[in-house]
Amino acid sequence: MKAVARICVMLMLELCVRRIPGMPHEVKIGKDTPVCYSFDESKAPHLLYTGHSTVGSVPILEYKISELTSFDSEFELRTLDPEGVIFFGDIGSEFNWFLLAVKKRHLSVQTGHGNDRVIVSAGPVISDGEWKKIVVTKKEGGVSVSVNGDNIVTVQQSQESIHAEAGDGLLRIAIGACTPNSSITLALNPPLDGCMRNWDWVKQDSSVLHRLLQDSQSQRCWEHIVPGSFFPGKASVGFAPQVLWNATVEQEKEGWSLTVELAFRPVEDKGVLFAILDPHKNVSFSLSLDQPTKDLVLHLGGQVFGSRSAPPSLCSGESQFLQLQVREGEVVTMLGAEEVMRKLEDKDFQYLKSLWSQPGSMVYLGGLPEGASSFHGCLQAKVQGVDVDVDLAEVKHGDVHSHSCPPALDIRDGK
Q1: Amino acid 253: pLDDT
Q2: What region holds the Laminin G domain (predicted)?
Q3: Domain covering 8-30+44-221: architecture
Q4: CA count, 13 A, side-chain hemisphere, 175
Q5: Which residue has the higher pLDDT, 351 or 242?
Q6: CB-CB neighbours of 312 under 10 Å
Q7: Considering only CA atoms, which of 126, 82, 78 is closest in space to residue 224?
Q8: HSE of 396 in the Cβ direction (CA atoms, 13 Å)?
Q9: Long-range contacts of 398-401 (CB under 8 A, 24+ apart)
């Protein structure tokens, strides 16, 4: 018995990466790009990455319902991401659907028919970076989900879904996103920075997934992962400053100030770590690594505001910890235990203060729009005392891994 299976590579408008028109003022970064810390970036050919929905590359399996002898599926999942789609399936039509996702680090099961919807979240923490065996079993009138052998939740099926199982339509399974042209609105952020292995989809042939993994490195995962956001040297993420607003911090301040904390391990000693762009996409303020001079450079209004030598450990594979504070009268950078203070003119402080709340301003991590001056390595950021969730970015390149890095770039030492 052969089931129809295919891989769809589609552009999902509701998930696409928004492109920013125009190029920003250039932040000059050395053009030579020798690797300063070499490690094996290759990925395992048997591990399927689930997080590519933002670039339109979503694996879709299709099976003729009349050829199925089972609706049961199982796989192993590993993720550090607190939220995202594991898989989405519909049967007979797009109106009979089933969703398995991660929500607030736990499993979330959703089923629906038309406007009717059931949502249940339960079970152990999924987002701990450990492999979990997940089994989805069809039972009379319902669907049961278990994790590592423990039944977590059972949800009832709609009558329409039960009738569709006896029809001659298609069962579609989308991994990491909704099916093409789906009109379903999900109450979560779809991309899941996660990995699958040892899958068995409805007891049918899914060798097309193995062929996909053979053909594409980007569809694979690292054998092991550590927390952090991985930037591949050609991508960045952008936020509206309001997303990074911390009510507690703002209430405790007498006046506005900006605090940025970065933990990072670079593969190349270049690239923009943090930047603020005005509504015209000009780089108003930035912090970057300059390769020729081996300096950490601050730019303000298109001019070099200050620089300091990067530590000798920059290319050693060791974690780097940097704090930047912008406050009335001064800018302070602390790299390791060494603090450097620079005078900030009041007009420049007022400009940055107004820019932070100005509609259209953007904060970038790991580079600038269109992949310019990009950072290559693992990065974690706190802005205004809050951990930055890369998945909340308004602009995010699909090659950025939001919540995982290869173990050679573990930035947790000493943090």
Answers
A1: 56
A2: 45-221, 233-405
A3: Sandwich (2.60)
A4: 32
A5: 351
A6: 9
A7: 78
A8: 26
A9: 398/17, 398/51, 398/52, 398/54, 398/55, 398/57, 398/235, 399/55, 399/218, 399/232, 399/234, 399/235, 400/229, 400/230, 400/231, 400/232, 400/235, 400/236, 400/237, 400/366, 401/51, 401/193, 401/229, 401/230
Q: Show the tokens assigned to 131.
A: 């492999």
Higher pLDDT residue, 79 or 308? Answer: 79
- The third-level CATH classification (topology) of the domain covering 229-409 is Jelly Rolls (2.60.120)
The torsion of the CA quartet 356, 358, 363, 367, rounded to 10 degrees, works out to -120
Other CB atoms within a 10 A radius of the CB of residue 381 amount to 24
Q: Cα torsion at 296, 302, 304, 306 (round to 10°)? A: -70
Cite the residue boundaries of each domain of the chain with CATH code 2.60.120.200.
Answer: 8-30+44-221, 229-409
Q: Cα-Cα-Cα-Cα dihedral of 259, 263, 268, 269, to 10°? A: 50
Give me the percent of the chain exceeding a pLDDT of 70: 87
Going by C-alpha positions, the residue among 396, 381, 403 that lies closest to residue 79 is 403
Let me know if 41 is exposed, middle or buried by CB neighbors in 10 A (0-12, 13-18, 19+): middle
Nearest to 356 by CA among 260, 290, 233, 213: 260
pLDDT in tens, 367-407: 999 877 899 999 999 999 989 999 989 999 888 999 999 98
Decide: 51 and 220 in contact? Cβ < 8 Å. Answer: no
How large is the C-alpha radius of gyration of the chain? 23
402 with 389: CB under 8 angstroms?
Answer: yes
Residue type, 277: L
Cβ contact 391:81 at 8 Å: yes
Supply the DSSP string of 330-392, one letter for each residue. Answer: EEEEEETTEEEEEE--HHHHHHHHHHHTSTT-EEEESS-GGGTT--EEEEEEEETTEE--GGG
Burial class (CB in 10 A: 0-12, 13-18, 19+), 111: buried
**Token pair for residue 315?**
């290319």
Assign 15 to helix, strand or coil.
Answer: helix
